[in-house]
Amino acid sequence: MKVTEYFEKANGKTLISFEILPPLKGGGMQDIFATLDPLMEFKPPFIDVTYHREEFLYKRRDSGYYEKVAIRKRPGTVGICAAIMHRYGVDAVPHLICGGFTEEDTENALIDLNFLEIKNVLALRGDARAFESKFVPEDGGHHYALDLIKQIQRMNKGKYLDKNIENGVKTDFCIGIAGYPEKHFEAPNMDIDLEYTKMKVDAGADYIVTQMFFNNDAYFNYVDKCRAAGINVPIVPGLKPLTKKYQLASIPRHFFIDLPDTLAREVANAKSAESRRQVGIEWCIEQSKELKAKGAPCLHYYTMGDAATIRKIVEAVY
After folding, report:
1. pLDDT of 206 above 60
2. Inter-CA distances, 20 with 46, 52, 239, Å
3. Which fold has domain 3-317?
4. Tell me, what DSSP letter sits at residue 175?
5. For residue 164, what pLDDT is reported?
6. What is the average pLDDT across 103-126?
């Protein structure tokens, strides 16, 4: 079933969903099941699975020269989605990214997903490679998530890259996109960021999942600004607990978001790792309760492999 259909059938009830990372190359499905098994009693209607572009390593050869080799550190998104649907009977939402994919690669991925009867995708540009200062698309790939959405919608109409294909199978993907309550870091300002978001919705995006935030006012203000801009699709808040001291620096640096002063000081002043974790859990619980009380369509938790922490939060909210 489509994500948006779950929202419609919920009749105003706040749903719950989880996002997981594929295991590092060499890992197995037991890593995924270890994360999800403790969370399935909360009956999430869908689970997101992230996609990661290739990275490059330089391997020294016997000649003494270095060879540039592309690897995917976290492969397996499509297979993981199929395994989740088979084991738990819930819908899986694979992330599709521009980085590392040609249009042909994207089309083939969508064909595979359609064969598996996966009805939902989250369309993202993706991040730049670690050694690049800006996003660089694959040759023959998409520069922007907007272009990716347009390709998905063309396939929903039965239009493929091969112009000789007539009466091609029409896919029926529900398309999610990312939203940024504190502005995408590359956008000059929030108004322009919202213009880009509206372009994606107008092109066929069906719902928005936000970047993590730690101040609920950022989410509520974002929703208000979206509605004022004519963006009327469901907007799902993305949540992640801050549980470690190093995250006081790493989260703002990597995700370009602000941390509330009270939260940052409480985490910094906590006397032990467990007390820091508890501060983050309690903060996320209060965030979740307020978002639920004010009618958010779904609470989307970024698990990052930490099922115990997420479980403790959800138990207190649902």
Report:
1. yes
2. 11, 12, 13
3. TIM Barrel (3.20.20)
4. E
5. 92
6. 96
| Residues shown for the chain | 318
Amino acid type, 303:
T
Mean pLDDT computed over 210-235: 98
Contact of 129 with 100, CB cutoff 8 Å: no
The 10 Å Cβ neighbour count of residue 290 is 14
User: What is the four-CA torsion angle of 262, 265, 269, 273, rounded to 10 degrees?
Assistant: 80
* Mean pLDDT, residues 295-305: 96
Q: How far is CA 57 from CA 60, 66, 131, 186, in A?
A: 10, 9, 10, 27
Per domain, the residue ranges of the chain are 3-317
3-class DSSP state of 101: coil
Which helix (H) or strand (E) segment holds residue 211: the answer is strand 207-212
> pTM to 2 decimals?
0.93
For residue 67, pLDDT beyond 80: no
> 176 CB contacts (<8 Å, ≥6 apart)?
3, 93, 120, 121, 122, 123, 205, 206, 207, 208, 209
Neighbours of 164 (CB within 10 A): 5
pLDDT band for position 55 (cuts 50, 70, 90): low
Is pLDDT at 77 greater than 60 in this prediction? yes
Residues 6 or more apart whose CB falls under 8 angstroms from that of 296 comprise 14, 219, 236, 237
Pairing assessment for the beta strands 91-97 and 120-124 based on DSSP bridges: parallel
